[in-house]
Amino acid sequence: MAKEEYGAKDLAVLEGLDAVRKRPGMYIGTTDSQGLMHCLWEIIDNSVDEALAGFCDDIVVTLHTDGSIEVADNGRGIPVDKEPKTGLSGVEVVLTKLHAGAKFGNSSYNAVGGLHGVGSSVVNALSSRLDVEVDRDGLTHHMAFHQGHPGVYTDADPAHPSPDSPFKRTRKNRPTELEITGKVPARRTGTRIRYWADPEIFNSTAEFSYEQLIDRVRQTSFLVPGLKITVIDENVPETGDAAVDEMREVDGADMAAHVREDDVRPSDGSADSAATVAQTAAGDAGDAAVPSGVAVAKADAATHTHARVEEFLHTGGVKDFVDFLSHGEAVSDIWRIQGEDTYEEETQAVGENGELHARKVTRTCGVDIALRWVNGYDTVMRSFVNIIETPGGGMHVDGLMNSITRQVRKTVEANARRLKVNLKDSHMRIERDDIMAGLVAVVTVRIAEPQFQGQTKDVLGTAQVKPIVTRMADRQFGEMISGSKRGYKEQSARVLEKIVGEMHARVQSRKAKEVTRRKNALESASMPPKLSDCQPGNDDVAELFIVEGDSALGTAKAARNSGFQALLPIRGKILNVQKASITQMLSNKECAAIIQVVGAGSGQSFDIEQSRYHKVIMMTDADVDGAHIRILLLTLFYRYMRPLIEHGYVYAAVPPLHRIALAGSHKGEFIYTYSDDELAGKLADLDRRHISYNPDIQRYKGLGEMDADQLADTTMDPRTRMLRRIRMEDAAEASEIFSLLMGDDVPPRKAFIVENADDFDRSKIDT
């Protein structure tokens, strides 16, 4: 074999934004719908950062009919003067240079959300066309880009720009002069970016989600009080209704109003008059020139009478957010914890010559928390750093909950007699779960250069934030819960009664479980006779396989490792517990056997720590009936053993569909495939590589058709098997889906099937 040479000539150097186009996943995660939405968040967040800095109060997001998206703001505008090191305009630096912008220094921004992402330059690189307009110094400046490269487009109709128009690229290493396209009042500033996502980058399944956009915009309007965000969707088909869509949640109220055409269009219907009306709405009446962007977008909303328009403006901040998230009868008013404090942090600072050096800086941490209790058991906790959501919580949430737990316990002990709490009983101690039942809270902090744990950036890791939040909550929440703060005595009494009631219910539930639970969870005599249990002593790795049918059970017994793998057969499709009562569920042999074998109880009394197995694996046939059985099992787990799913204990086995027996020099080797498409691709690959195989491909109709070695290698042996973990990202949404698809209300389910029949994807039924 010839020796391969490897030298510097083999190295490829990608300059500028070419690296982004080569490896887009490194910058936006994926090139599917998630990556498509991530690009939009980057542009919106830059405008929101201007609002956080106090220079912007109006953002307009327009979804054009040609698939492009425009984001306009009335912030300071991207700098248009020359950047001294590159000789390029600020606009070109921001949109063509990675890791370039004011947020890397310490002068222009304090607390921002843009640092969380990848920046406008990456969006530019992944767009087939991007146009930017900046209002500064009394002028409108314009620049265009094609796949990240600056240049000039020649549009046949300037009013309708297109990425397919002829494009002349600026010569390499030559600055592109900003084009002056008009004049504006000297005090008007702002930035408008319109871009077309590049179909060469994003895959065919990438779809824009209007619902995600609205949720994100609504969330941002809560987090930045006084910031108005308007979403204009020009893609809504005409219906003959002249009303513009609902204008929701203005001034902190869930107010819906229908704005008719006569309310926004002048009597003469002229375009100039329509623009004047739009200017007046934006506070710019009387301006001599009307640049594109905010004013034009508003004018378009007036002339496109069927465009979907939604506005969001909240002045109450996180207080309005908690009110929006609250469902059910309120136990207390919305309580607010606010304040600022400072901390020291060592960071890398940018010097005058661009070099980095370590130095200690004093940071300011702003805290704004709103919370209330409602009747119910669910907890709604949303946390943010600047405008970045932290679904996993972090130091700010830990600081708050530590304080709340300590202050509630302290107050309960001080009022033990009134609350009927026996302090001598060690079980009567307030736990965090008692406090969080019915709690609705929004926790926000604003800090410069936040640190996150891990690559997902969903947990705040800046340790100095925790003691700051704890001190503020100790002082302010302590006064509220103790009733010493004026106006809080009655509210605190109701909150404490609810928390103590949760504690009593938990204690009574535990006592009831201890009475009814078997003396020994591993005592096989109390187990169903059809259970083939594993050997005791392997609790941390014990696995329970729920097997479909007795035929598969026989093979599974020979294939399993009896040291840590247990088998429980079920006969066909179990009871649909979504339609059945608790009594019916408990009287069903299959459901009762599963609950008994897991050994952790059911419903409110379920205790995940008592589960006999750390993996519960549904092993059913790879067909429609098997998928149906898995759904029925998941319904049982979701309704009566939900912590199993929440803690990641529930899995679905993934058995193969086909077995390819190789021939020739590879005789005795086998390849398993898991779908018809994978089989076709694998056979084509074998043909291309001239590897012979038995043309009689074995198609498994069920688990019982496999012998023990095959079942072990493909489905049961931890070294070679493939499992699919069942997750529950949003319990509320999951509950609605289960109620719709598995409940006894037939008309909504029929309507769902009819509406979604055209979009049916067979792969989605395999949970």
Shape: globular
Assign the CATH architecture of the domain at 318-349 and 358-510: 2-Layer Sandwich
Reported by name, the CATH topology of the domain at 318-349 and 358-510 is Ribosomal Protein S5, domain 2
What percentage of the residues does DSSP assign to strands (E)? Answer: 15-25%
- Kindly state the mean pLDDT as a whole number? 81
Query: What structural class do you assign from the helix and strand content?
Result: alpha+beta
**CATH C-level label of the domain at 318-349 and 358-510:** Alpha Beta
Task: State the distance separating the first and last CA atoms.
Answer: 48 Å
Radius of gyration based on Cα positions: 31 Å
Strand segment tally: 25
Number of contiguous helices: 24
Helical fraction equals 25-40%
* Oligomeric form: single chain
Taking pLDDT < 50 over at least 5 consecutive residues as the criterion, the unreliable ranges are 9-13, 103-109, 112-117, 240-304, 517-525
Q: How would you characterize the largest beta sheet?
A: 10 strands, mixed
Protein name: DNA topoisomerase (ATP-hydrolyzing)
Domain Toprim: 542-656
GO biological process, one term: DNA topological change
Keywords: ATP-binding, DNA-binding, Isomerase, Magnesium, Metal-binding, Nucleotide-binding, Topoisomerase
